[in-house]
Fold this sequence. Notes:
By secondary structure, this protein is an alpha+beta fold. The chain has a domain at 7-43 and 89-202: Alpha-Beta Plaits. 41% of the residues lie in helices and 19% in strands. The chain has helices at residues 7-23, 44-53, 58-68, 98-106, 109-112, 135-155, 207-228, and strands spanning 27-34, 72-73, 76-77, 80-81, 85-86, 118-122, 125-132, 166-170, 182-183, 186-187, 189-190, 194-195, 198-199. The strands form five sheets. The chain has a five-stranded mixed sheet, sandwiched between helices. The protein has a two-stranded antiparallel sheet with strand order 2-5. Strands 3-4 form a two-stranded antiparallel ribbon. Helix 2 packs across helix 4 (98-106). The longest helix is centred in the C-terminal third of the chain and has 22 residues, at 207-228. The radius of gyration is 21 Å and the shape is globular. The chain starts with 6 loop residues before the first helix and ends with a helix. The mean pLDDT is 88.
Amino acid sequence: FRQCYSTEDQATYLSQEIEDLFQDKKLVLATWIDLRKAFDKVWKEGLLKKLRNSRIKGRMYRWIKAYLHNRKARVHLDGLKSKKVLLRHGVPQGGVLSPTLFLIFINDLVAELPQGVKVAMYADDLVIWCTNEYATVATKLIQRAVDALTSWANRLSVSINTDKCSTKLFTLSPKQKAGTIKINGELLKDKQPTYLGVTFDDRLTWKQHINKAAAKARRKLAILRKLSGTT
């Protein structure tokens, strides 16, 4: 959301964190959390309460309240129009203020996490991680963080899509094995995560990411060759 900060910056930040900890002979346990339709599901009354707590009041507060409330939408298709539907949740998609309002809505998330857990977020792409010499200790800490995050989400009517959540242990030691991480009793998948378009493997070799990029390039090249009539 911030000027001059791109998805590449965020992915580089996370990868550099892991690389630095590898140098210290430590492991990193990371968990990716998917907030379901985060922009569309913002709890408006909860957002307004946070604005008041941030001492935003008077004309500015009333203007933002009017901006959020009584918004309606309809579908236009082939010259036909649907009935207008009241949008009870969310901040306006494409609105200039929407990114700032969304950040205000989620700005207390970090304070909910236990000490030793870091967080990175780009729009609604959220990842938390911690480091330790032992995977068992890291697993317990991340589980505590996930439980705290789940409680935060429940209070603010934020829905977590557990099917799209995953966890990954980054380590140079084959002896280290992560335990299980659960959200609301559901076991998270242990898989190679793709974060902001970058595939992270457990040793940061980037082999899978390079293979995916090369395969995609070959498919595009094949299409161009067909269009140009060459082989």
